[in-house]
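Task: fold both queries, return tokens.
Query 1:
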Amino acid sequence: MVGTLQQVYEDMEHGVYDFTKNGKCSGCGQCCSNYLPLSSSEIKDIRRYIKKHHIKKKKHMIAPTKELLLDMTCPFLDMSKEKDKCTIYSVRPKICRCFICNQPPSKIRDNKEQFWRTRKPCDMRGGIKMLSKSNIVEIIKVDEKEMTEIKIELMKTDSDIVKRALKDKLNFLEDNCYRYKLQAKAWGIEI
């Protein structure tokens, strides 16, 4: 758990929050992302599991703003449940199995970088397909545009609730952009 207020502020600056309970995953779903680095076998296992168990993708509510924001949460996260929120838990990706949010931001980032170097980016909401070099460039452009729009919206709104939701979304997009740029660099693409 986070020990000091200073650490909380530092974690928030880096988009890392400690949602653990007694050092163990709380199952809150805050780390569940739409774009993940997956291996081919993980994709096959997830597709097979979804088909066998008739699993439907979930949509998630996002704080209302002037413009509709994209749902960047994993479509297999069921927020209506108190426990067992991951509908593909038994075949969840390795990055999901290994991640715990109570580590120092630098360790979390190093772990994520390792996964992005050894696996390919996959769109969980878009049919669980691997992204191509051209897709990743487009996603970076879309995310950067959305980050600019969120920054503008942040300056306009007076609502603390909306500000917090926008800041969370901004942190999420910044983290995604960092990962996509890392993958693009690995592919030899200059952004």
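Query 1 returned. Query 2:
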Amino acid sequence: MTGTVIIYFLAAFAAYFVASFALGAIWHLTLFKKAYETAASDFLLSDPIFKIGFAAITLNGIAMLAAFSFAYPLGPPTIVWAITILAVIWTPHFVAIMATVAKYNIADRTKYLTLEAAFSLANIVVLGLVLRAIFTALR
């Protein structure tokens, strides 16, 4: 890879990390904090462990970068291209949420699943737009 390509891939990772963390923090700790508290108060920590969140975003970012690196030669980065790759990456996240709902005592399972499904969709769309812009600039 050339130096320029590496810079774009690192920029994509940084954009993914920042956008993912910002969206997650705003979603879970501001916009829908009360909804999560009522849906799963016995399940959620009152103070999230941000180090684990950073690790999760980093691992997901590495997976995203690998997927985009593989798909990059396949053609121009359309929004469908970006969202499809992110949907593949985020599907295991939602499957894990479903497993969590099946295993733990969550007061309002439907509300919790709805919140997490909406978050996953928002994440896929927002990050798809961000990453498409970066990979379009790379071309």
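Both queries returned. Flag for query 2: The mean pLDDT is 81.
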